[in-house]
């Protein structure tokens, strides 16, 4: 059987090449990760697949909790039946369905009942069309629109809101017809229309937003009804009654959810067909995975040109325009009130307390916009659609969860959801004893906050990676530089520097960009990638001090300055600065990590390990900072004489960052002390390959350690390992 041939197991059909799952002839919605898990189990049917094998292959190169695999297995069992995938205790999972020996027939998939775009089915399948069905497939441009904050407006003034909605509907109807479009549906606060051409749909959308903007200019800001509009050009299924279905409709609806209030989002298909044909600017937002759409979709914000200036402008009324790029492009999150699952209303205080503390903890991350507690708590006790919440609050991410207390134990579940793509980014469950409820609350809040922030950063980096260079804003430049910085190669560090300089040009008070730029110059000096080295350190220090001046409340700026101070021989001052970073954001794991480095170089070895273990406990998932963490711990264990543990943790650091020279130093010293001189020499050779100027003389001149006894122990050990004078 060819790789692309479907595999049939009774009523279940798996199409590996097309990444589709059918049950009883019907296309079943399934997430990308779940399908990857299914494909592996199907390909290895007949044997047990271990959890480690599944996680290594499905989440290659990414550290995830086992809970993520369990979530995908649970999702598959819901679709295939509980016995399709069995758990083999202590070993893994096995796919148990028997393959069908009959030739697979192309299934004719049922047509779903008519739906409006605001209440789409989980997936709209392909159809086997025939003349007898009365259904035809064609290319069309779809316009989907939805009002933002409609429920809030209705709750405040129902009569005025209905009048505003009727007026908006009249605008849509007139502009759609004026551009040769056909109105499909106006159910509730939504609009769905079909056009023969993309230019007709886009010009209609621009005209609608312009007319609504003018009408809103005399309305109070909090009473304005703004619409998001999505436009896509693609295949649709059209019935004889004019109803349309298919991915074309689905994608337009998903794009509408990504548009700004009063804005327009269009797909790559629309952009490609209209380039140079409309008076508007397309701002590339990169590729986005959309719910139940197999392939990522590249999309754009559409900005109308100002007739007088020929500059792109928002189509919303002047008073509603977004403020500077860094503000509007910062990632944003709402912490929804956790659900009390205990069955005891008296436990409500615990769920509310954790929700409120999470809001406060996340707001300590200056680069993250966090919706106020009062706004988020309006959703308390309500079954919510995260996409709708995201639209109403104007946020990209939602943190939600539950609290269940029984006796002296409490279980807290949390998940981070992308409100635009409607996908789970991270999920975890915490089980604790309730001996001290306040200590428990602080611990859980710290763990969640310290994990969620890096998860959001990683998601944002992936989004920025797919955007075209001429559409990058300051935040995008920073994210691209951050990804390059953590690869720690000469090429990547050199590429990160101009990206950060561009970010600062666009946003001169961008403290985090200054902080990262300082660390890039520090890396250049550390590795000898620039001459003279002293100049790199001076530049790094100057920029780090500028970061603190422009961002006095930025934990990242203080962390960067502390790191620079350590590497220019001022570890004692670095302790003070890194402790300030932790005061500014107690959940910032990198602040604890840099404190650990500063403490070890000052000779406080136990204090170093305490700080490092705190950083590790706060966020065990963030591999971007773990190399420095292992570096500091390796130094501490070596100086304490625990050479085997020093080797173990330093190898972990080297695995995260192959050019981590501090780990190479610890490995060489530890192996030499254990009498493993050949192994020690190999680490010295690698160290000299990375930093040819590294000698015992250089080590004595710049030991980093402050304590004289520790300096001598380091020099003697490196001499024993074979480092030249």
From TrEMBL:
Residues 4-97 bind DNA. SMART domains: CYCc, TPR, Trans_reg_C. Residues 141-256 form the Guanylate cyclase domain. TPR repeats lie at residues 555-588, 627-660. Keywords: DNA-binding, TPR repeat. It holds the Pfam family TPR_19. It comes from the Bacteria. The keyword Flavoprotein does not apply. GO terms for molecular function: adenylate cyclase activity; DNA binding. Residues 4-97 form the OmpR/PhoB-type domain. InterPro entries: A/G_cyclase (IPR001054), Adenylyl/Guanylyl_Cyclase_3/4 (IPR050697), Nucleotide_cyclase (IPR029787), OmpR/PhoB-type_DNA-bd (IPR001867), Sig_transdc_resp-reg_C-effctor (IPR016032), TPR-like_helical_dom_sf (IPR011990), TPR_rpt (IPR019734), WH-like_DNA-bd_sf (IPR036388). GO terms for biological process: cAMP biosynthetic process; phosphorelay signal transduction system; regulation of DNA-templated transcription. PROSITE patterns: GUANYLATE_CYCLASE_2, OMPR_PHOB, TPR. This is Guanylyl cyclase. It comes from uncultured bacterium 8.
């Amino acid at each position: 059987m060819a790789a692309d041939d479907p595999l049939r197991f009774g009523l279940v059909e798996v199409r590996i090449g097309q990444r589709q799952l059918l049950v009883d002839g019907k296309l079943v919605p399934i997430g990308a990760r779940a399908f990857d898990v299914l494909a592996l189990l199907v390909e290895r049917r007949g044997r047990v697949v271990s959890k480690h094998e599944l996680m290594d292959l499905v989440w290659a190169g990414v550290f995830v909790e086992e809970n993520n695999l369990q979530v995908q297995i649970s999702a598959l069992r819901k679709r295939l039946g509980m016995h399709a995938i069995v758990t083999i205790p202590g070993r893994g999972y096995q796919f148990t369905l028997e393959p069908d020996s009959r030739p697979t027939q192309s299934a004719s998939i049922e047509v779903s009942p008519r739906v409006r775009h605001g209440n789409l089915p989980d997936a709209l399948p392909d159809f086997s069309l025939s003349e007898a069905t009365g259904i035809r497939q064609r290319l069309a441009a779809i316009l989907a629109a939805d009002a933002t904050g409609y429920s809030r407006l209705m709750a405040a003034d129902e009569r005025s809101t209905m009048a505003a909605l009727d007026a908006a509907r009249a605008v849509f109807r007139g502009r759609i017809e004026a551009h040769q479009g056909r109105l499909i549906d106006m159910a509730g606060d939504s609009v769905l229309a079909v056009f023969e051409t993309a230019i007709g749909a886009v010009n209609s959308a621009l005209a609608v937003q312009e007319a609504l903007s003018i009408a809103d200019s005399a309305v109070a800001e909090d009473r304005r009804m703004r619409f998001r509009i999505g436009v896509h050009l693609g295949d649709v299924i059209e019935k004889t009654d004019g109803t349309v279905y298919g991915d074309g409709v689905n994608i337009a609806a998903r794009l509408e959810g990504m548009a700004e209030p009063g804005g327009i989002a269009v797909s790559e298909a629309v952009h490609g067909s209209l380039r140079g044909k409309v008076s508007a600017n397309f701002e590339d937002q990169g590729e986005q995975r959309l719910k139940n759409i197999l392939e990522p979709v590249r999309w754009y914000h559409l900005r109308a040109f100002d007739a007088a200036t020929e500059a792109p402008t928002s189509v919303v009324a002047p008073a509603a325009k977004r403020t500077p790029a860094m503000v509007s492009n910062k990632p944003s999150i709402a912490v929804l009130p956790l659900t009390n699952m205990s069955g005891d209303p008296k436990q409500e205080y615990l769920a509310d307390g954790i929700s409120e503390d999470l809001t406060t903890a996340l707001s300590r991350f200056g680069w993250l916009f966090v919706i106020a507690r009062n706004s988020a708590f309006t959703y308390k006790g309500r079954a919510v659609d995260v996409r709708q919440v995201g639209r109403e609050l104007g946020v990209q991410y939602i943190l939600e969860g539950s609290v269940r207390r029984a006796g002296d134990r409490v279980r807290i579940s949390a998940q981070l959801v992308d409100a635009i793509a409607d996908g789970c980014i991270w999920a975890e469950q915490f089980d604790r004893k309730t001996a001290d409820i306040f200590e428990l609350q602080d611990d859980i809040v710290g763990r969640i906050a310290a994990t969620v922030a890096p998860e959001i950063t990683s998601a944002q980096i992936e989004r920025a990676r797919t955007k075209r260079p001429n559409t990058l804003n300051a935040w995008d430049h920073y994210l691209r530089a951050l990804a390059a910085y953590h690869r720690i190669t000469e090429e990547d560090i050199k590429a990160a520097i101009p990206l950060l300089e561009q970010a600062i040009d666009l946003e001169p008070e961008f403290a985090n960009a200054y902080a990262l730029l300082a660390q890039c110059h520090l890396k250049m000096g550390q590795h000898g990638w620039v001459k003279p080295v002293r100049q790199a350190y001076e530049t790094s220090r100057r920029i780090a001090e500028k970061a603190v001046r422009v961002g006095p409340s930025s934990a990242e700026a203080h962390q960067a300055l502390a790191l620079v101070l350590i590497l220019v021989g001022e570890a004692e001052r670095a302790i003070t600065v890194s402790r300030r970073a932790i005061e500014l954001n107690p959940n910032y794991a990198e602040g604890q990590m840099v404190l650990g480095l500063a403490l070890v170089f000052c000779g406080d070895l136990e204090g170093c390990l305490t700080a490092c273990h705190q950083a590790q406990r706060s966020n065990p998932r963030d591999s971007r900072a773990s190399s420095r963490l292992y570096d500091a711990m390796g130094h501490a264990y070596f100086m304490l004489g625990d050479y085997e543990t020093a080797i173990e943790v330093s190898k972990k650091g080297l695995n995260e960052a192959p050019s981590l020279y501090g780990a190479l130093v610890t490995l060489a010293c530890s192996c030499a002390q254990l009498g493993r001189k050949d192994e020690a020499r190999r680490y010295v050779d690698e160290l000299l390959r990375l930093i040819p100027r590294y000698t015992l003389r250089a080590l004595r001149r710049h030991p980093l350690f402050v304590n004289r006894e520790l300096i001598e122990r380091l020099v003697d050990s490196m001499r024993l390992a074979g480092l030249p004078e």
